[in-house]
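Entry 12.
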Amino acid sequence: MKQMNILKRIAATLAIIGTGTFLFNGLTETVMAARSGPVETVPTSYQVSDSLAAPLPVDETKQDSNEEVNYYVSMDSLNKGTPTEMDLTMEEAAKVGEQYLKNIFGLDLKGAYVYMMYNAGTETFPRAFWSADVLFEKEQTPESTRWNYMIDAVTGELFNIGYDRQLDINVPLGNDEALEKDYSAYAELAQKKVEECKLIDSPIERVEYNCQGYAGNDPTIAVDVIGKNGEIVNMDFSRYDQTFLGLITDTSRRITESAFDSAVGEVESVEAEKIGENTVTWTTSIVK
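Predicted 3D structure (tokens):
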């Protein structure tokens, strides 16, 4: 029984670690799950926001999609999903994504290759979405410099967006303990970016340290920009040269946390055991 409780505890811990990884690497984890994971469709309601991450009016989105584009759009070879009549078409979704890339990264897609994927939702992200892999070379390789985004398949609302690169030099990837105490430089960068892109519908209340990690050979730091209305935008920067690498919107965070809460059951039991002079408490959680 004790061994089973330990295993359950480990399972719950791994689930938590998995969620943390998702929150930090947002788009990549979700898209990979979309390629092979189980699909779960849930009823949703949409809130219209004044921020950049808010959905575009459907009529406007469809009208813009008729404009001439100067980039190449196609379905990703790994795509398995089929959009419904309610969803944006591939071209419409690509047009919405182009605007996000332009407004947030200042990226001009002239000559770019945009590979789209549709998914009706996954267990870790139960909302229909379009995702894109954007490169300035036709072949998709792990080493390619790329931009990516994930948007609501119906409204075009931004869930997350990112920039991935390979550094030309090797730099330390380990945790920088000094940054945990003083991350003010990144807090300033994050606040400025959120304000410029209008990512939160209220004044910013504070910026909090989130975590450190790395993407490929690029060391990263994530901070949370928190608005007075409770919205949280997770911002990712390179610790090598402070380059902005991407963000996860508040809507994406809430969808992910809700899915995680649904996957993890209530605490089943709490057991205490005397080991020498110490008392060890085991809390057992069940993962559905």
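Annotation: The chain is about 30% helix and 30% strand. The chain has one domain: 2-167+177-287.
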